[in-house]
Design goal:
The chain is built from 8 helices and 5 strands. It is elongated. A hairpin with a 5-residue loop joins β1 and β2. α1 runs antiparallel to α2 and α1 runs parallel beside α6. It is of the alpha+beta class. About 55% of the residues lie in helices and about 15% in strands. It folds into 2 domains: about 170 residues, Beta-Lactamase, CATH 3.30.450.40; about 60 residues, Winged helix-like DNA-binding domain superfamily/Winged helix DNA-binding domain (Arc Repressor Mutant, subunit A).
Length: about 250
């Protein structure tokens, strides 16, 4: 399908403006997200609300080493996107082939018979599934559903393709932010742990008049004897020192 969009006709001009508004709203929503699952929910809400003719919207996501994720504007429709109910359906076909899948009337569709029966039972007649490429470890599809056959026109298909491509870039950015936040949090934790253990070593050195390696050995022996982590031993020691009354003649502060 060609992605060429001409704005010569007023209806086409309106469609271009709608698509631009959709992508702008989607960008604003996902830029504000620091959680991947939250970003998927924002994607679904924005698409379902902003694309004319769409009754329901869902996203199917495959992540390496993790169960498939499904987010949908309606729980019943979410079951259609969930591959645990069967791998055959437009979403998985779009993910496997990396091509847009469109069925304008499910009453004439012979592929995925079990999926079609469930979809028609929910009132779905028209469906678009567009592949979403996030990164090397995450693939997915955005799924648009309509009650009326033929409601998802050719222009809606183009919009779905643009939406999927734009969403992939934005979701990749969210994934990068999540990873960066996790790395910063891990670094902060290690720094706190190291500082706490260092304080405990200093306390033992002062009280026993020993070297730093000897003080560390005291902490390790205590950790092994009590079967608790080294950090917790250091934390308990720090709390014990903090609760001690000030020695006579010592200046406060």
């Amino acid at each position: 399908m060609s992605l060429e969009i001409r704005a010569a006709h007023p209806t086409e001009t309106l469609g271009v403006l709608e698509t631009a508004a959709l992508l702008r709203e989607l960008t604003a929503g996902l830029i504000a997200s620091s959680d991947f699952d939250d970003a998927l929910e924002r994607l679904v809400r924005t698409s379902q609300r902003a694309i004319p003719g769409v009754t329901w919207c869902g996203v199917t996501v495959l992540r390496a080493g993790a169960p498939a994720a499904v987010v949908a504007s309606d729980p019943a429709v979410g079951a259609l996107d969930d591959i645990r109910h069967g791998p055959d359906g437009p979403a998985m076909t779009a993910i496997r082939t990396r091509d847009l899948v469109h069925v304008s009337d499910l009453r004439t569709e012979s592929r995925w018979p079990a999926w079609v029966r469930r979809a028609r039972g929910l009132g779905v007649r028209d469906v678009i599934s567009a592949p979403v490429d996030v990164d090397d470890h995450v693939l997915g599809a955005i799924n648009l559903y309509a009650r009326e056959p033929g409601g998802l026109t050719e222009h809606r298909q183009v919009t779905a393709m643009l939406l999927a491509e734009h969403a992939g870039l934005l979701l990749a950015s969210v994934r990068d932010r999540v990873r960066q936040h996790a790395l910063v949090g891990e670094l902060d934790r290690h720094l706190v742990d190291g500082e706490l253990v260092g304080q405990a070593i200093a306390v033992i050195m002062t009280e026993r008049g020993c070297s730093a390696p000897e003080a560390l050995q005291v902490l390790r022996r205590t950790s092994a004897a009590l079967s608790i982590p080294l950090r917790e031993v250091a934390d308990r020691l720090a709390q014990s020192v903090a609760r001690r009354p000030a020695r006579p003649g010592r200046l406060a502060g």
